[in-house]
Amino acid sequence: MSTTTESESAARRGGSKGTASGGAVVLPPLDGPERRLYWAFADCATIVRRDLTHLVKQPANIAWQLGSPIIFVLLFVFVFGSAMEVGGGLDYKTFAMPGMFAMTMAFGFMNTALSVVIDKERGVTDRFRSMPMAPSAVVTGRGISDVIQAGLDLAVLALIALAIGWRSDGGLAATLAAFGLLLLLRFALIWIGVLLGLVVPNQEAAGNLFALAFPFGMLSSVFTPPSMMPDWLGTIAVWNPVSSTANAIRELFGQASPALGDSWVEQNAMLMAIVWPLIITAIFLPLAVRKYQSLSR
Amino acid sequence: MNPSEHAVLAEDLQKRYGRRNNVKHALDGFDLAVPTGTVHGLLGPNGAGKTTAVRVLATLLRPDGGRATVGGYDIATQPRLVRRQIGFTGQYAAVDEILTGRQNLEMFGKLFHVDRRTARARATELLEQFELVDAGDKQVRGYSGGMRRRLDLASSMILAPRVLFLDEPTTGLDPRSRSEVWSSVRSLVQSGTTVILTTQYLDEADQLADRIAVIDSGRKIADDTPDALKRAIGGDQIEVVVSRAEDLPAAERVIARVSGAEPESDIETLRVSGPVSDRVAALTEVARTLQEDGTEVVDIGLRRPTLDEVFLRLTGNRAGREAADGEASTIRGERDRGGPSEQSGDSGESKEAAAV
Ligand SMILES: Nc1ncnc2c1ncn2[C@@H]1O[C@H](COP(=O)(O)OP(=O)(O)OP(=O)(O)O)[C@@H](O)[C@H]1O
Ligand SMILES: [Mg+2]
């Protein structure tokens, strides 16, 4: 290696470098472990604010996301509904509405995956990862803003349900608890969405996740009682976490399906509507955070 | 080598992509030592491993082997401390499309843990510095490529980082935006920032870099000052352009006598050139002789080889090699990684050439 370095090149670049003047390197504050927790929350709040700005600036997205549940409502309730017999004199609209709430929550992980993959493709994720912010904040911030968005989605759906004549027969507390269970399911699926968003290579691939979401949402008790399905399909549907949530909220709405089987999961729908989301979160939250930290694109 | 004198020290970094039967060595024994306060250019053909090197050093990618420190901290064991020291601008503009330019800068400022008021003030300053004031409150998705790029750079300069990584910072910018970026980089260097810059533009490396590392196939094949690299592939040339073809022989005779070597001449451009050692003496001698002979001269001057020539000379052998064995990547994948004997053929030679 040659040693004719500094003076020569400084001279070549003329006065622009010259003698160093003014300024100094400015680094972010160095925090001890006790400040870590503070920043984990503060950074998370910053990310939530950003995600919600996205929501507000793109109202068309909300309409788009609610498009498919609304089409499902129209199809199932008004087109197939007349031919559907769920037994016990329960009218199909009453059966299908809670199912539709649950299905919307189930499909929600695709929105999460899509937001995550867009950030990844645009390089925003890389910028976050190269910064001294709390590494958990991007993932937890995404989670919180998605739950807020899911709350909005549910509110709109509930209005539509009211408009076509659906009513909750449970008390106020039970009805609110039902919406709580719905949000809990959505919350658990966020981590699967984040993980999938980090794993799939691009937006087009994220679109293909619908092939995964569709059976996950539909192979359940949302639109048909599993007891009316072929045996093996019925078993899958019964154990689907979406079914547990759907069955539990029907109970809370005071509209328990008469076609409910007597398997253990179906009889303990309320318990399972809490346990399933916890299991999913326990498995996929750490996986999602780890994947985020070790992303290697 | 002492880490405190070097903002970046990398030794034998390895990064492999792909599976067993189709391994791609993106980094294959990559070394780098960047003295604090300098600008180091990473230059190399497409796929050489520049982006990979920068991403590994910025803690975005975990290396498969080797060690590196950035700002004195180990990238593998102290990534959080490394991230406090660095700014990073990737190859593609990484800004939020839905937010405005100002909101982007304020958000990144807060995530750098700057208090709200400072983050605001800094955003305003940077918008001015990068001439984004008018667009500052508009959504980024309406920005041109150059505006995005400038916002992206501004985002990595919110604090004056100790080490700034720039991956092709001016690709896609018009000449004016490029020189703005260059002056921002220079002013950061003045405040003590060390810059590692990959680029496809040799003039950019020439303008900004104190030293240039030429990378090929995941390893460094030369590392020197731009001047030394240019000198290494041949000294200065004297060049004369005459006005009429009849005058060419006269010019050739003079240059042959002065340079003591066979001159090159081009009948199309009426240009004659030859290598010289004593620049000023040669120039005066040639000019005087031509004037005395009454040869009509359009242009006369000294020319140092451009970095383009250095670059092509150093990396050109790869193109030949790849053409010769077709599936270069497979062959590289199958051999045991980084056997020194394998590489010495080409790159050893180039290194010698560069160090002359
Ligand atoms: N995620 C990946 N998976 C597989 N191969 C990869 C991946 N990223 C990079 N590579 C390969 O590693 C090599 C080095 O890539 P890198 O992006 O570092 O090159 P580069 O010098 O930045 O090129 P360019 O000038 O095109 O930006 C290339 O051959 C590339 O194909
Ligand atoms: Mg690159």
From TrEMBL, chain A:
Superkingdom of this protein's organism: Bacteria
Key word Oxidoreductase present: no
Pfam name, any one: ABC2_membrane
Protein's name according to its UniProt entry: Transport permease protein
Keywords: Antibiotic resistance, Cell membrane, Membrane, Transmembrane, Transmembrane helix, Transport
GO cellular component: ATP-binding cassette (ABC) transporter complex
ABC transmembrane type-2 domain sequence ranges: 60-295
Main location: membrane
Localization per Swiss-Prot or TrEMBL: Cell membrane; Membrane
UniProtKB/TrEMBL annotation, chain B:
Gene Ontology biological process: daunorubicin transport; doxorubicin transport; response to antibiotic
Signal peptide: none
Entry-linked PROSITE patterns: ABC_TRANSPORTER_1, ABC_TRANSPORTER_2
Family under the similarity heading: Belongs to the ABC transporter superfamily. Drug exporter-1 (DrugE1) (TC 3.A.1.105) family.
Chain coiled-coil ranges: none
GO cellular component, one term: plasma membrane
Major place of residence: membrane
Membrane topology: Peripheral membrane protein
Enzyme Commission (EC) number: 7.6.2.2
Alphabetized Pfam families for the sequence: ABC_tran
Keywords, alphabetical: Antibiotic resistance, ATP-binding, Cell membrane, Membrane, Nucleotide-binding, Translocase, Transport
Domain (ABC transporter) ranges: 8-242
Organism: Streptomyces tardus
GO molecular function, one term: ATP hydrolysis activity
InterPro entries the record matches: AAA+_ATPase, ABC_transporter-like_ATP-bd, ABC_transporter-like_CS, ABC_transporter_ATP-binding, DrrA, P-loop_NTPase
Name this protein carries in UniProt: ABC-type xenobiotic transporter
Broad EC category: translocase
Region described as Disordered: 319-356
Localization per record: Cell membrane
